[in-house]
Structure formats: structure tokens, C-alpha cells
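Lab meeting minutes (informal)
Scribe: AK
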Amino acid sequence: MSSERPKLGPDIPKVVTGWDTRTGRVVYLTATRDWSEALTDAAVMSGPAALEALAVAATDQTRAADPYLMQVTPEGAVAGRETIRETIRARGPTNHPMFGKQAGNP
């Protein structure tokens, strides 16, 4: 299943995100249509290009499950009404800095 999030207008910068089917980690679609765990690698898109990328991602759910569009700034930083949720997804758990991505754990 994929989601277009209707409140994200066509001119709002966004990236495609989902969950790696092998590891369960958060991944982002890159400009080369590959998946990366780093938000900085994500392709920032708007308009029809974002919808097209989401459609492509939705057909390849063997690598990334449940892709959806996530609002970002034009530079690719987390933004929008779900900033807290998406920041936690991008950085890892909030329970202690020695766990998750922020500690360099795989």
C-alpha cells in the first residue's frame, strides 16, 4: 500500500520514504531510484515527478514496504505537520543516544 497524503500540495517539496523489507529500517528513494537509509541521499521532488516516483516505489515493494510522500524543505530537511514523527524516523529512537542510528548502530 502506498499513500499520497492529500494535504501535501503539488508545489510542496517532498521525498518518498518507506521501510526496508529486509531490515525494517527507514529508507528514502534516491534520484537513481535506489533506496538509502540517509535522508540526505533522498531525491527532493514536487509536482508530477513526486507522484511518478511514488508510483514507481509502490510497484517495487519487495525492497521497500508502504512507500509514501513525506514533506521536506527544498534542501531536504524534515518539515511539515509531521515533523516530530519524521525526525524520529530519520534519526532513530528517542529513549537514549547510545541506541539506534545516532549511535552508529546498524
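Next up, CB showed the second protein from the same session:
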Amino acid sequence: MSLESPFFTREEFACACGCGFDVADSELLDVLEGLRFKFDAAVIITSGCRCKEHNKEVGGSENSQHIFGKAVDFKVENVNADDVAEYLLSEYPDSYGIGRYDGRTHIDVRDKKARWDERGSLLGS
């Protein structure tokens, strides 16, 4: 799949293990570009694609959308992660997977609604 975006490169989506898996779903790319325009700030992908082995190593779920190239964990430069999540929840109230973590947000373009909140997990709570 060709990745055509003025804001993102294929390398940003690549599996962190170095295996070369670097798929980016076009619907996911549309959501990320929408975030870029909404906040007028860089969207920094902290976890994109994951091969099955890397996904297992990082404790991802067996059916993680990351292994299909349909999910990213990310930060928006100079924007609080809670504000980003609130925007996504209001923009996509009945669709996608939206997860909250300390200092970052997860979005995936699965075909049904999913929500979770793991904030505070770094503090052991």
C-alpha cells in the first residue's frame, strides 16, 4: 500500500522490532490527518504497526489492531493527551477503538466501538 500524506512517512508506522512491517490503513491515516488539522500540531506516533512477535513482547492483545496496521498510539505535540482523547470521543462517539494512557492516546479503525482507560497504570493504580 502506498502511503500518501504530507504529514506522515511509512517509517513512522513501522514495527519497532525492525522486521519491516509498516502498513498504514488509509482510514487510520485520514483520522490522523484530521487530528493534525484540528490541533494544528504534529502527531507523533509512539507505536504503529506490530508484527505478531513484537505485539506479544509488548503485551498487546492477541487480536490487537496494531497487527493489522489499523492502530497507533500517539501524542499530539504540545496538546494534553486528555484533550486529544476527549476530541476523539466527541468526533467518533459510536465507532473506532479509543484508548487513554498516561501521556498518549490510542486510536484504531476497527469496525465497532471500543473504549478503555489505562491512565494511572504507570503509577501502579
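CB comment: The first strand starts at residue 43 and ends at 47.
No objections, moving on.
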